[in-house]
Design brief:
By secondary structure, the chain is mostly beta strands. A hairpin with a 4-residue loop joins β13 and β14. The chain is flat, with a radius of gyration of 21 Å. The termini are far apart. The mean pLDDT is 88.
Length: 187
């Protein structure tokens, strides 16, 4: 059990039988009242966020998630297959479960999968990932009159992204998985 005061950002709490990740924490002390803790909580079951205020001594269940390294194997029939790197056990996750993280899954890359009581909770991706450009607009010389120096592109995973004008089809690029933005050309 943890009090609201001890529940800093990064903590996973069980509130009303649901799991929440503490992403923001604010401490408020009234000069003649009780101390309150305002938290932004991300529901790990349905990916929604909510703001809640607690009394500083409110007690909540602290949750420790099981985290294991998995290798992404393949996609077939709307299912993504992963293999545990230590036990070689395979699991399959459907597209509704992993949401938009599917755009950063490249075969043979490793990811961390978090589980609670053998149930999938979250997929932890590397910060930067290498993707290949499969389609992009052609660049027209001197096409900077409108100040546009980027163009639309589609990667091998289906991600639509803005890239600089000098990127061509089949180029490999580095994409930030948190901001979904082009970082640099892969070396």
């Amino acid at each position: 059990m943890k009090t609201a005061f001890e529940s800093k950002p990064g903590t996973v709490l069980k509130i009303d039988w649901e799991l929440f990740f503490v992403s923001k924490y604010e401490y408020h002390r009234a000069w003649r009242g009780t101390t309150t803790i305002k938290m932004r909580l991300k529901n790990l079951m349905n990916n929604s966020s909510t703001d809640r205020t607690f009394n500083w001594e409110d007690k909540m269940d602290d949750v420790i998630l099981d985290r294991a390294r998995f290798e992404y194997l393949y996609w077939a029939w709307w299912v993504y297959a992963f293999m545990n790197q230590t036990t070689y056990e395979q699991i399959e996750l459907d597209e509704d479960t992993i949401w938009d993280m599917k755009y950063f899954l490249v075969e043979w890359n490793t990811v961390d999968i978090q589980q609670y009581e053998w149930k999938f909770i979250w997929l932890v991706l590397p910060t930067n990932i290498k993707l290949t450009i499969e389609e992009c607009e052609p660049w027209v010389k001197w096409n900077t009159a409108d100040g546009k120096v980027t163009k639309d592109a589609i990667t091998n995973t289906g991600l639509n992204i803005k890239v600089p004008w000098f990127i061509n089809q089949w180029d490999e690029i580095i994409v930030n998985t948190e901001t979904w933005e082009y970082m640099e050309r892969a070396k």
